[in-house]
Amino acid sequence: MAWSCAACAYENPTDALVCDACGVAQRWHEDPPLDIPPPPPWHHVGAVWALLGYGALALAGVLVLVVPGWLDALGVAAPWIVLEVGLTGAAALGALVEAVWQRRFNRAFVEVPRTVRTGQAFEAVLTLVPYHTLERVSVQIELVDRYYEHVQRQGRRQTRTRSRVLDRHVLQRGEPVRGRREHAFQAQFLAPAPSLAQHDVATELMASVLGAFGPLLPGMSHYARNLREHGGFFVRAVVRFGIWRRVYEQRVVAVIAPLQTAQD
Fold this sequence. Notes:
The chain has three domains: 1-32, no CATH class; 42-103; 112-255, Immunoglobulins (Immunoglobulin-like, Sandwich), CATH 2.60.40. The chain has helices at residues 26-30, 46-66, 70-74, 78-104, 201-212, 220-228; strands spanning 3-4, 11-12, 105-111, 115-117, 121-130, 134-153, 156-177, 183-190, 232-241, 244-255. It is built from six helices and ten strands; from the N terminus they run ββααααββββββααββ. A hairpin with a 2-residue loop joins β6 (134-153) and β7 (156-177). It is of the alpha+beta class. The strands form three sheets. A five-stranded mixed beta sheet has the order 4-10-9-6-7, with helices on one face. It has a three-stranded antiparallel beta sheet with strand order 3-5-8. It has a two-stranded antiparallel ribbon with strand order 1-2.
């Protein structure tokens, strides 16, 4: 059956991959591009300005360490400057990844059910809409169990945060994704029953105390929130293209299904 070119209305034979009249590929009509805006310019991306700010702070710290006399004039111990360089350098790297991602993807998110019954299958979907065709893209989706572990150290009870991967699906490895199209990567998991300590009262109290210092110590609120929300099941999608890597996570609440009893 012949197909009609939407660009020039020419009738092409069935086996033609491109229009004989205008050269437009047949798959362009079968999978048309989405009507999305072009990628934002670099100066419109907020992460770029964060990158410049953190990068300047990290560079200033390095200069204080290497230029003779600057450290003494500042009156701050070298270990504190090294800590400042490490923190601002890590923040600059995170801002760089965020800026690159905003320039490469119009949309990127993970969808999972809010609650699932234990023992039943559920589906996780990662959606990617790149602005342009990207080469060497890898995608994997995992089901992760995060829990608290209690240990004894020098006679004192301590709580550690731990995690384990329950299931993993590698959906794409080093393959291209077309630009201005919606790509949905689906993975199916079996909802597990909680078997380890996913809640800890002492950790909740510690997170509340640390959160109170959030207005005074930068980053303390973020750490306290992560500590409080650590326990539970999470769907984690890892996207890589080239040297860039990004992780998307969504919590899944597992509900223990009640036993079915026979009714007389």
